[in-house]
User: What shape does this take?
Amino acid sequence: MTSTTQVLGLSGAQINHFQDAFKLSYHLNYLEVCQQFVPLRGLDVLEVGGALPASLVIDHLGCNSWTAVEAPAYDQELGAANQFHRNSEDQQHQKKHAESYEHLYLDIETIPEDHYGQYDLIFSIACFEHIHRLPQALRVMHQCLRPGGRLFTMHSPIWSAFDGHHLPIERPSKFRQTADEQNWIFKPWEHLLLTRSQAFHVMKDRFDSAFAEEVIYYTYNSDHINRYFSEDYLMAFQASLFAINQFQLTFLSTPPPDVQTALEQRNPGYKQFAKKGILGLLRKGEAPHPIIF
Assistant: This one.
């Protein structure tokens, strides 16, 4: 990944401003990666699963328009952690660019049809692992693009990653260890190696029953994540109407050989557990072609 000291033509002071004012971290790096594939200046962009500030995407990057779509349930779940786009400073920029910047709260699958055929690029980061109806979402995103339009996604951690449980809760302070020890809830890949009942008993012994119940809910039951393995994403992309220009597994974290064997035995048909995320670049209007791991 590109260092945040050299991204998007921003000065150090500008980077600090966007990071501090809007709680941006990986967003700038991922945006720079997208920019390397698809220069953003002059484009009509649909952002799925986030709302980057108008002062960044319109004023600095020079996008022609930017429409941000966020799922209401996920925004509510994140609460204050997802409120950077309601920054009072950026609200002024949004008013300034009222004709070119729009922020919608809806699931992408339900976006009104007047958005179909209106965008050059769909930009989506840290989102696809939360989309449950991914094939339907891909169909709608395909419709939203103009011919030749592209879809860029970077997302992690996916279910098959060492931390693919993607827990939105933290280890309670009363159970935290000393600073030099790992404060895991699950150990790496443990969520894939245990059954639900096994995981509950492990968590109950590691913590207590009340916290174990929360861990089991968010890991195996909640709508927080879709629980797609690497192979499932590739299958969904290949089954879509898009052509796949790029499909890369990102952020290496290789299981030890005995863990890899156990993961394959516990999850038949799946072998890709060493990468945490996915980078995809899809295009509308070209013949799809297969990609094999």
Summary: The first strand starts at residue 44 and ends at 48. The chain has a mean pLDDT of 90. The two ends are 22 Å apart (CA to CA).
